[in-house]
Amino acid sequence: MESIAGGCRYRLKGGDWQSVVAGQRFSVPGNSSFDIEVKGEPFHYVCHFG
Asked: Residue 31: left (phi > 0), alpha (psi -120 to 50), or beta?
């Protein structure tokens, strides 16, 4: 997940909450899941697969 604008908090399955802002990215392992929380301004992102 590549953050384009705004920011969010995310938590990979079994992990702790982390924050990401515009220009940063995070990876979600295959066959996994994550929680995401967005507050305030919209969060714009690009999801790269593969």
From this structure: left
